[in-house]
Amino acid sequence: MNSLFAESQPGVQSLGNIRDYVNEFINAVHNGSLLDGFSRREILSLSEYLECFGVPRCSTVLCEGDKGDFMTILVTGGAVITKAYDGIDKVVYVVKPGDIIGEFSMLDGQERFASCITTLPSDFAVLTQDKFMALMSDHPRLGNKVLLALLHTATGRLRCATQEMVPGPANFGFV
Predict the structure, then answer these.
(1) What is the pLDDT of residues 38-95, one digit of tens each?
(2) Which residue in 23, 41, 60, 174 is deepest, having the highest Cβ count within 10 Å?
(3) Residue 22 belongs to domain spanning
(4) DSSP letters of the chain?
(5) CATH number, domain at 67?
């Protein structure tokens, strides 16, 4: 696999292609919202492009400021997203099975803007930028459906972050 994921932490273990764990993967993604509306057949096709890795507890999966060439979906276990603020890492999100992380950097090639640390031994499905491009080429309809799901996830996160930062209209006296 052409990715920085396997080198991210000591103890990360390659478990092979996610198709070997497809039932666990399907259960995980049905817990999250990323692949809502995807058929089992589409998920099976997508699984051909995903690698599975086992990661020990207290491992840094994504590091704020690093260049990213992959995204992950938590299949089993748990993790937290942290953001450095005034020299202190603050937990900004608790990652649950089915949640996707790292998609922004995979898509735009920019630095990670937060870190992800496992809180339990965890398994991750990893989609590299190269594999995503292969998916888009091999299965354009499915690739576009995945891209729209990523966009939906990103806009949802942006809306939540904006609501937390800016008071709602009622706070300004608007009805």
Answers:
(1) 888 998 999 999 999 999 999 999 999 998 889 999 999 999 999 988 989 999 889 9
(2) 60
(3) 13-164
(4) --SSSTTSSTT-EEEEEGGGGHHHHHHHHHHSSTTTT--HHHHHHHHTT-EEEEE-TT-EEE-TTSB--EEEEEEES-EEEEEEETTEEEEEEEE-TT-EESHHHHHH-PBPSSEEEESS-EEEEEEEHHHHHHHHHH-HHHHHHHHHHHHHHHHHHHHHHHHHHS--GGGGT--
(5) 2.60.120.10
